[in-house]
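Page 37, continued from 36.
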């Protein structure tokens, strides 16, 4: 197939402002394309060489390199290429102009084919190592030498990553339906196939070669990502229950969505946008290998940053340390992730996406080995908005973003955003800038490196009216090993076999202490929580106040008596003052 056919179609697509026209040009182009080439034509139209999920080397040729190739092919000095680029502001147009000034085409010049352009671009993408720049210049110049000015324009735009015709996936699917089935109505059949394989090229090839029946037969395949099911949003628990009736409310974790494909020992991890994350997350790969029981499976989870010493959830920002190309192993040790599983799509050759949520959840619970690093995301099943709210507050306080409420009967609908999944997030956030001084009233035994010491503490604020200490948070972050040795020394003499009579708490720590030691903490914010008595009913019936992401600052306030700690009233005021609407 001559490359000029593609270039002409690109010219037309670029010139139009109407989606319908764009689609018609695509239909025309697809009809002219031999079925064996249609995948490549589609990738090129979208400015790439492969579907994204393969994580193949990208073109991304630097401007400098492209300019050298244009100079070679056009016989013009590099300075003229630079000037023309500056004048036109578009390297593709610069190539077009300079090549149109060529006096003659090279002696051996022959029409460019799509096959040759694709193969050469592929070679350019894969060429690495010493001397690769010169080699890429040569390869690119070779193509340009045989290209017409218009063809050169598009080749340059493709290699520099600036094609941007704006041809969206759905437009391609519309055009494919029209071109090969005679009706755009069939788009939903193609779309279903696309949602299952995330590869427009594969769908196109199937429909062009074998027709609609072949597309209908598309199945989930291990190693090919499935497009993610997405959620709608409603503002209140009541509205969600009204919409869904009895439903499953799961924690909505604030992490990184992962779709994990397991095939024996082989693990592939895809992101929400279907990029390949496998190499970046060796720890998640290992967890998948050891915690997913079936030989073959596709599961979805949220990967969250956790404190390696306490297992506490950390804020989402901590995950950013994992977005890197180098030092991957080190980052995995310092900022390990825990996996919170929320769905299963495939098990040992069986596509389970069509089964209702409640069945998939049962299956998920059977196939996952749960421990401190891998969990099935906690949930409750309810039709009571009050209960939903309570669960919501608990989740937020523990570090979640809110809840994901799911229709018990709904299948997993790849690529769809509908009301079978509804997210409940907060409208307000109480930002906390001050430090808070709280009294240690209880302790939790440490584990791992912290074995034999206390790994976390239950803290309370003071209520002067009743002269009691009311529990308001559990803190396990911010302590050095030396801090923990020190706390053991300080607290062991204060151990008592039961809750101190001046302490109010709804939860039991491993060990109770006489309220005496005051420590300074910071936190992301103060949140509502049904599990802590401090501030109970002050803001909302049935809810107290708690700290979200609390952290020890390193200061023990020996200068403060427990009665000098931050009071319940102060916390309530802080909560009210710092409410901030989340956009
Ligand atoms: P979206 O991903 O829906 O386009 P968004 O980027 O605004 O929108 P969120 O509002 O954060 O995303 O909500 C969706 C994301 O929540 C999911 O993609 C997934 O990563 C995450 N998530 C966390 N917990 C769950 C859960 N229990 N079930 C499903 N998704 C969850």
């Amino acid at each position: 197939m001559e490359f000029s056919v593609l270039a002409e179609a690109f010219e037309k697509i670029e010139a139009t402002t109407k989606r319908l026209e764009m689609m018609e040009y695509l239909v025309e182009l697809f009809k002219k394309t031999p079925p064996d080439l249609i995948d490549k034509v589609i990738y090129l139209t979208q400015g790439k060489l492969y579907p994204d999920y393969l994580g193949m080397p990208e073109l991304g040729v630097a401007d400098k390199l492209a300019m050298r190739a244009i100079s070679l092919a056009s016989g013009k000095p590099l300075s003229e290429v630079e000037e023309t680029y500056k004048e036109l502001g578009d390297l593709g147009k610069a190539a077009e102009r300079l090549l149109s000034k060529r006096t003659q085409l090279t002696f051996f010049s022959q029409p460019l084919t799509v096959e040759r352009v694709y193969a050469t671009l592929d070679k350019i993408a894969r060429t690495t190592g010493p001397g690769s720049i010169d080699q890429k210049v040569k390869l690119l110049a070779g193509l340009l030498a045989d290209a017409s000015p218009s063809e050169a324009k598009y080749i340059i735009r493709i290699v520099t990553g600036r094609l941007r015709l704006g041809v969206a996936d759905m437009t391609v699917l519309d055009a494919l339906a029209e071109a090969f089935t005679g009706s755009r109505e069939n788009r939903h059949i193609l779309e279903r196939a696309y949602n299952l394989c995330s590869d427009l090229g594969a769908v196109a090839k199937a429909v062009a070669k074998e027709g609609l029946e072949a597309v209908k037969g598309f199945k989930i395949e291990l190693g090919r990502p499935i497009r993610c099911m997405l959620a709608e949003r409603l503002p209140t628990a009541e509205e969600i229950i009204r919409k869904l009736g009895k439903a499953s409310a799961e924690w909505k974790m604030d992490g990184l969505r992962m779709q994990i494909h397991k095939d024996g020992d082989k693990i592939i991890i895809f992101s929400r946008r279907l990029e390949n994350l496998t190499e970046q997350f060796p720890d998640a790969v290992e967890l998948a290998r050891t915690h997913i029981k079936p030989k073959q499976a596709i599961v979805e989870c949220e990967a969250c940053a956790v404190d390696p010493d306490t297992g506490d959830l950390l804020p989402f920002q901590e995950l950013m340390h994992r977005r890197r190309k180098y030092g991957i192993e080190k980052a995995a040790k310092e900022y390990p992730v825990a996996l919170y599983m929320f769905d299963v799509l495939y098990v040992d050759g069986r596509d389970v996406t069509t089964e209702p949520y409640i069945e998939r959840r049962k299956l998920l619970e059977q196939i996952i080995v749960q421990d401190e690093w891998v969990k099935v995301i906690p949930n409750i099943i309810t039709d009571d908005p009050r209960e939903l709210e309570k669960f919501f507050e608990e989740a937020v306080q523990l570090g979640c973003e809110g809840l994901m409420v799911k229709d018990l009967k709904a299948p997993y609908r790849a690529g769809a955003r509908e009301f079978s999944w509804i997210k409940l997030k907060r409208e307000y956030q109480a930002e906390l800038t001050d430090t808070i001084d709280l009294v240690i009233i209880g302790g939790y035994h440490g584990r791992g490196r912290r074995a034999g010491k206390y790994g976390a503490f239950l803290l309370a604020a003071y209520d002067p009216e009743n002269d009691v200490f009311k529990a308001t948070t559990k803190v396990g972050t911010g302590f050095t090993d030396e801090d923990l040795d020190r706390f053991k020394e300080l607290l062991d003499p204060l151990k008592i076999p039961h809750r101190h009579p001046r302490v109010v708490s709804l939860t039991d720590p491993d060990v109770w202490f006489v309220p005496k030691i005051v420590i300074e903490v910071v936190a992301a914010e103060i949140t509502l929580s049904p599990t802590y008595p401090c501030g109970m009913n002050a803001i909302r019936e049935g809810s107290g106040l708690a700290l979200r992401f609390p952290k020890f600052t390193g200061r023990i306030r020996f200068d403060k008596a427990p009665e000098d700690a931050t009071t319940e009233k102060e916390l309530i005021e802080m909560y009210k003052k710092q409410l901030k609407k989340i956009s």
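The mean pLDDT is 93. Flag for discussion at group meeting. The chain is about 35% helix and 20% strand.
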